[in-house]
TrEMBL record:
InterPro entries: Cellulose_deg_GH3 (IPR050288), Fn3-like (IPR026891), GH (IPR017853), Glyco_hydro_3_AS (IPR019800), Glyco_hydro_3_C (IPR002772), Glyco_hydro_3_C_sf (IPR036881), Glyco_hydro_3_N (IPR001764), Glyco_hydro_3_N_sf (IPR036962)
Keywords associated with the record: Carbohydrate metabolism, Glycosidase, Hydrolase
Gene3D superfamilies, per database record: Glycoside hydrolase family 3 C-terminal domain, Glycoside hydrolase, family 3, N-terminal domain, Immunoglobulins
Family indicated by similarity: Belongs to the glycosyl hydrolase 3 family.
Keyword Hydrolase appears in the UniProt entry: yes
Domain Fibronectin type III-like positions: 665-734
Molecular function via GO: beta-glucosidase activity
Native organism: Paenibacillus ottowii
A Pfam entry, by short name: Glyco_hydro_3_C
The protein's name in its UniProt record: Beta-glucosidase BglX
EC number(s) per entry: 3.2.1.21
This protein's encoding gene: bglX
Enzyme class (EC, first level): hydrolase
Amino acid sequence: MDNKTLLEKLNTLSIEEKIGQLIQLTGDFFEGDMDTVVTGPLKKLGLNTDYNIYNTGSILNITNPEKIIRLQTDYLEKSAHKIPLLFMADIIYGYRTIFPIPIAQACSWNYEEVENAASIAARECYEEGIHVTFSPMVDLVRDPRWGRVMESPGEDTLLAQKYAQSVVLGIQGNNLEGGAVPAHKIAACVKHFAAYGAPVAGREYNAVDLSEHALREYYLPGYQAAIEAGAKLVMTAFNTLNGIPATGNEWLNRNVLRQEMNFDGVLISDYAAIEELIMHGYAEDETSAARLALLAGVDVDMKTAVYANQLKNVITGNDYMLELLNEAVYRVLKLKNDLGLFEDPFRGLQEIVKRSTSSILSDDHKQAALSLTEESVVLLKNENNVLPLSREMKIALIGPYAEENSTLGMWAIKGEETDTINLKTGLLQLVGPDNLSVCRGSYLLPVDARKTFDKYADKLAVETSSEEDLLQEAIRNANEAEVIVLALGESIYQSGEGGSRTNPALPEPQLRLLHELSLLGKRIVLIVYSGRPLILTDVAEKVDAIIQAWYPGTMGGEALANILYGEVNPSGKLAMTFPRSVGQIPVYYNELNTGRPNLKENGSYRFASRYIDEVNEPLYPFGYGLSYTSFEYSLLTVSQKEMKTNESVDIRISVSNTGTYAGKETIQLYIRDKFASVARPVKELKDFKKVFLHSGETKIVEFSVDEDMLKFYGREMEYKSEPGEFEVYIGSSSQETLLSFSFTLLREDQHE
Ligand code: GLC
C-alpha cells in the first residue's frame, strides 16, 4: 500500500480503532467464546468490558502456524477495519534450531556467522508465521550478577555495535526496497532502551544511574547500530534512567531515540512497563501513565490495560495528544505495510503450511549452529596441554551436565530439549562406550533450591539418587579413567530474566564433587555451562583445563566433543571479564587510569587505587581465550607517526601459527588516548581481525586507524577527536599486548 492510501486508511479509523492498534495482547484473548474472554483474560487484565478485542493491533508469543492462520482469519472476519494483526515473539537466538546464547555468540568474534544465525532464526520464524522478533538485545553489561548477561553481547561497545548490526541484518535483510521486509525475513526489535544492563548492584529491574557521558560513550552505541542497520522496532526498558523510567522518559525516547538517532519505527513498551510507571511512583494512576507514555513516544502497550482504558480520556479535547496518537498509529500501520500484511495478512503462511518441506532444523541450519557454537566456546585454561584428548584415552565424563539436554538458556521459547545433542551424545559420536564412562556425580542444585525458583521449580531435574551414591559412583569411574571430564554449571533457571545472583558461582553440590575428585590425582578437564561469567578462582586451581561452554544450544554436545578431541581448535575470546571475586564487580577492561593507578612497581603501596584483600586484575580478562596452537605477531609497517584528521594510520603486521594445530586467532587492536578534555580509558577496542592459519603458516594482517576511531564524547557531549598522542596496542587479549606503538593526531593548524 502506498503512503497516501495508508494515511487515508488511518483517517477512516475511529478513536477506539486507533487506540486498538496500540494494544498488544496474548493469544488467550482470542480463544473461546466472548463470554469466556470477557470473564477470563479481559477481566484479569482489567480491560473495560466494552473493549473490542477485534480492534487489537498485535499478539504476543503465539508461534503455532495453524493457530496464527486461524486467529488472523477470525480476526479479519470480525474486525470492522480489516487491518491485519501483527504476531510478535521472543525469538532471541534461534527458533527451533537454537544457537549459543548471545554472550557466547559475542565470544565468537565472527559476525558473519552471527548474522547467518539470525538469518536462520528469521527464516524459521517466517515459516511459522511470526512477523516480529524481540531481538537483538544489546544491553551492554559489566556486572555478572545480573541474570540477563546471557542474552547480551557483553561489556564492550564495539562488540555490541557489531552484534546489533549483524543480528538486525540477519533478521530483516539488507537494503530493504522502500522499507519492505522481503520473504523469509521478519522485523527486528532492538531492546531494551536504554541501559537496562546497568542496574544498581546487578539486581534485576533495579534503578540505573549513569552519567550522560557514560550513557552516550558506552551504552547507547549498540542501540544506535541496530537502528542504523534498519531495526523496525525498539523496546523500552523496565528501569529508571537517572530517576525517570525509560518507558516514560521523553528525553530518552523523543530527543535521543527519535531525533538524535533518527528512529522513525515503532516503540513498544516492555511487558507491562507502561502500567509499572505507577509502581515506579512516576505516574499517580493509569490515566497519568497513559499520558506520560504517549508523551514519551511509546507506541504500543505490551500486555496492560492502560492504553486501552485510558487513552480516550487523555486524548479527548486535546489536539496535541490526538496528534501523538495519530503518529503512533501511523507507525504501527507502516510496520504492517512494510511486512506486506495489507496485501497478504498471512505472508504466504497458508501455502507454507501445505508444503511438507520446511527449513526448520534442516541439516544446513544445524551445521550453522554447530559451527557458531564451536567458535563461541572459550578455552580458559589448558595446563600441560591436557587438551586435546586422544580417542584412545579412557575418559570419565562426570557431572550434572554430562547428559543434560537443558542447555538452551532461558530465551529459547521454541527450542525442544529433545532436539539437543548433549555432551555424552556428542562424545559417543567420536569415541566408543569402552573409552567413556558417564555418571552424574552430584546434584545440579542444593536440595532446598527449589523454593527459590517458584514457577520453574517443576522444571528442575529430579534427583533420584542420594548425593553420597552419586559421589561414590563418580569416584569409582574416575579411578578407572585417565582423564576426568567434569561437566558442571549453573542451572539455566539461575540465569536469564529475574536471575540475578549475589554469588555467581558453581552450585554448592557441584563444588563438593569437584573438590573430592581433585583429591584423586587425576587430570581434570572442567566444562562450565553458564549464562554469565562465574567466579571460578578457587575452581581453576583444582583443574588442569577449563572450557567455557555457556549455554551452547542444539548442537552443544557435538561442538564440545569436537573441541575436546581436537577435531576443532577452540578460537573463542571473552566478550566479558571473569572477575576473581564478587567484590571486584564491576570489573572491566576499559577502565580509567585514576590519579593513583596501582602500578606493579609500587608493590603494595597503600595509597593507590587498589584493594588490600584482592588484586585489581580479573581472573580472565576481556578478549582472552586460548588455542591448541600458538601464534606470533610481528609489526611490519606503520604508515606514519603523525596523522591529520582526514588521514589514517595504516598498520601491517604478520601473524604466524607457530604451533602444530591449525587454528583461528582474533587479533585485537586497542587504542589509548593519552590525554584529553575528559579522562579516557586505559584501553579501548577499536578493531579486530579473526584469521585462520595452518600450522606454520604466516599471514599479513592490516589495520587502519582513522579519526572516527579516536572520537569520544567531550565535556559538552560533543562527539569529536582531540589532537595529541595515542598509543596502539595489538594483541591476543585486552591484557596480552604483543605489539605497540604510538602516533600523534595533529592539530588543524599543524596541517601544513
Ligand atoms: C520480558 C522481557 C523482554 C521480552 C518481553 C516479551 O519481560 O523483558 O525482553 O521481549 O517481556 O516477552
